[in-house]
Amino acid sequence: MIKLNKITIALAGVMFSGYLHAADANASGVVTFVPGETKVQNGEMVSYNGECFIAQNNPGVWETPNASSWFWTVAECSGEPGPGPEPEPNPDPEPEPEPEPEPGPNPNPDLGDVIPFIPGQTQVSNGDVVSYNDQCFIAKNNPGVWETPSASSWFWELTECSDEPGPGPGPNPDPEPTELSVLSPVAGQVVNANDVVAINASVDGELAAKVEFWANNQKLSVKVVNQNQTTYTQNWTPVEAGSATINVIVLDKNGQKLEQQSVSVTVKEEVTEDFTAPVVKFITPANGTTVNEKDTVSISVNATDVDNDLKKVVVKADNQQICTFDAATTDKFACDWQPTKTGDITLNAIATDAQNLTSSARVKITVEQDVVEPPVEPPVTPPGALCEEFNVYPDWTRGDHAGGGDIMVHNNIAYSAIYWTQSVPGSDASWALHLNCDGSEPGTAPLLSLQNPMDPIRLEVAGWPNTFVVASPSTTAPATLTIDTINSDALANVDKLTRAFVSIIKQAEQAGTASIIINSDVLDLATNDKGAALGTVSVKEALTSAVESTGSKIDLDAINALSNDVKGWAQAHNLIITTLAPEATFGWSLSIGEFAYDTHSGRQSVWDEASVFTADLLDSFELYKADAANKADFVVFTKSGTTEALNSEQWHNALEYVKQVTDYVKSPAMLANMPTAQTSGYFMGDAAGKPQLRKAAYSNVFAIMFDTDSSELTNKIDGYQNAKVPLYYVGEELEKGSLTSIEALNQQLAAAENAMDNEAFLYETPQSQWVPSTVYKWNDFLDGLNAMHNIGVAGNKFWLMNEGVDDETNIKYAKVAIAAFLAQSMQETIRYNACDENNWSEVKYGAPADYPMTASCGQLGQKYADYGVNPVSGLDHAYSCPRDNKMEVSALTHAKWYGAPAPVFAAPNAVLEERGLLVNGAVGRWTNNGHCNGGPNETVDTSKQVWEREDCKVYEGQKAGSFIWDGSSQESVEGCGWWGRGVIQTTGRQNFGTLNHYLGRSHVDPETIGKTIDGVTVEAPPANPLYAELDFCSNPGLICSSEENKEIKWIAGLFYWVTSVQAYNDEGGQYADWNYYNEIKKYVDSGLKGSQFIDDVSGIVNRGCPDLTCSTGDVHNVKERRENFKLVLQKLGLDPQ
């Protein structure tokens, strides 16, 4: 049985996988071209049929090299491998020195001093012997630090390792004879041209060193023989029909042939040619579009065919042909159509190619009967004063498009069209930024824009607990008072308005400490035009009369400062309540509108249709202005019971709206008067799904108030009291500087700030300079250490000292513990100045393209979303965060070299598909080509995700590079928000989930507490978690973004340290006697001598065991970790030996 606060060693392997394998790629030379398999880049050399060719014009895997091909240039086969790409481009590369003459062969190389080869670090001279992957090699031809040793490399020669155990005493036995057999294909077998044929051979014999695979005198590959393996496989794709001979040759270590087997097969020519059906889709109208029966419907279709034999395109309305196009004469498939009937109509586009292969696409539209009343135009975000003269999208400057030089406004930003365009302003290269309509700096986020806050809204409201409140009329909850004020139909009547103010004054005087909900239809009706249609409202006259009649003490100057319109009317309520009910909290009520029923691709869609107008209204009316004396405390949202119930997807839209509005006005939300019959199942859980209270809390909701009682609801509310959702931490405040009970230690640690920030926490720039980190700071570390040492998580604390020991010794214990942790942190992330994982995926590391956008999903063949899934049962780990395909999140940090890849990101397919960015369901890659004119970028529009930003404005300091949406990633980035973050990279759903359960707002189903799932007994989360306001499952980016809790990027690593290093336990195993506390004491008591302690700790962090070599491999960068450890100890005033 595994207890959860004893996190297993495997956690370390997961959290560091992004760093452990970066050096595993082999160096490459001239590539043997295998049709259907070999992918190359322009400029790379391949060999084929005994000749060499250089790639050009991006050849595909089936573009067979030949002298007449457009994709290849004949070249001489020098036998020398081409230079391998460096791990990262250098903006100012130094010229390579001329290679030294190759020395003569050394007949007797000295194998007594074998050097361990570490890719990217080990520099050797010709004749040096290195060890790598349990084999030894002799250097030749001046290998570089990235030329990884292999038996087939031009730079290395395989040799015996001198330190391998020799034979025992007595004569050596004769070696067993080498046995070779070709398992497949068999002699006489018929294979198809252009089909992949697997050549399988069995090799057995201790003299065997290498096995070569040949086909028709062309060497396919050379494989090193492993004495623990007998079967070897090589794929071969024949391209020419006829007889073919396959040869398999076994060689000894000196290259002498031991055995050879041949098999003859017959290659059968392909008799048919495959053709692909065309692809067709509607551009306009969109599915679900509603039009008037007198409208002319613009139909536009996109149709393509990979075989370039598209013949015709036909569009039908309810099976009646309405448009036809000859694809031989046009590639624009657009027409206008006048509906002839009302109701639902299905439009069907059919594309046919020359082979009579067809495909079709359908959209359903609704044709409404013409009415006398003019149609209500959808609201358009009003531009700022600077843009009043410009057209606002979709009001095109030229009917249905914009021409070069035309200026249009979208999302309160003015863009200038570079040439003829019909794309959304600012969405592609046909537009250039003109200005921000609100006067904010061009290139930055406009004031009225979708928020991506660095920290969540604090959900603290006076009189309410620090846990999420769920209540019905009969259950206990903080007092609320609903004030039903005047509705819009009576606003123009001064007498009714006066009586309404009198009623509000009297209720406010009796409110006490209750939370007041102001209820009226005025704000809902004023949303689209900020109340302009409601005209003049006699606010001053009515409120003055109400004050006189009630004798209330509301300042007359404050009344006279109000405006006689809807804004003044709303502000009058704020003035009355803050004056007469100073101990009460209050908020305005808004309805969740019809937008929730619509289909939305993602966050921006909800903002554009609904949130922007509500946010603009509340901001313009200054009802939640941060520095206003009459500021409201929370926003109330209601759902009418007379409208149709929302399903789960529609509630997602509604809660996204709630979050966006409250993020903008920086105030928490209450869901009030919620119809029990429609909403209790969704929020409290039912047969259709689990409770969604945590989702509501993530949407800034602190309470839900249902409108009626039911026995079922009451039972659910009672059950909820046993596992409440925390909203924010309430507990002991940590005093800065009071880390420990030893004041001398506290002062020494505080005094180390300058040395640590400027001499220890350094990162390497692209110019190979070491400068202070901008991400990791000493004081943030001390704040995190304070929390983890004095409060901890679920009883687990960062150990610094031992009771019963004198202060001098405890000071040493504390500094050694700190230095051991920081030695690992400096190696893993601080040296890169990275909080988020960088995109370093390349083809040579197994990626489908260099710097694919899918690096966020996992690098080196990993799938971060799958971390925590039991490979046998298929079940998620008990603490794994749930998968989230709607997550839209971007990294904050990234590599900084010239043209470095953009920060990684995740986005739903629907969002990218809506923008037309997916190619066959896949995203693309980053190219570091393309210089950015105007120097390094200095501004970033933070309202946009990384992928939405303009070219050359993707990140600060960008000098080159851009996204290419060509499908080369072969996958999408949906649900890919689990990349590594923090000082010791927290990666994958299980690791974020474990952190969230113990430190943040737990996502674990309360029904699983105390149960055992896949061998893990689920513990209850802390009742008052240290970071209850942070939900790392809903937004894992909080580890890096939080400004309120900068120490969290440290705490994520400290939490790992406490649960995996301090608690390391190999009971019954090889390291059963190793104990962290004993080892740290031993190191201090020995006078800080040797490297055993830091080596053991490095082994646990980097490889999972307290040793320099574990079953998972050797510890990476041992020397650097030792040096880091020694440096920190010295900066903290100790003298390690």
From TrEMBL:
Compositional bias (Acidic residues): 89-101
GO molecular function ontology, one term from the record: carbohydrate binding
GO cellular component: extracellular region
Domain of life, source organism: Bacteria
UniProt-listed GO biological process terms: carbohydrate metabolic process
Pfam families: Big_7, CBM_5_12_2
Keywords tagged on the record: Hydrolase, Signal
Annotated Chitin-binding type-3 domain residues: 30-75, 114-159, 393-434
UniProt cross-references to InterPro entries, sorted A to Z: CBM5/12, CBM_5_12_2, CBM_sf_5/12, Ig-like_fold
CDD domains, per the entry: CBD_like
Region described as Disordered: spans on this chain: 75-122
Signal peptide extent: 1-22
Name of this chain's protein: Chitinase
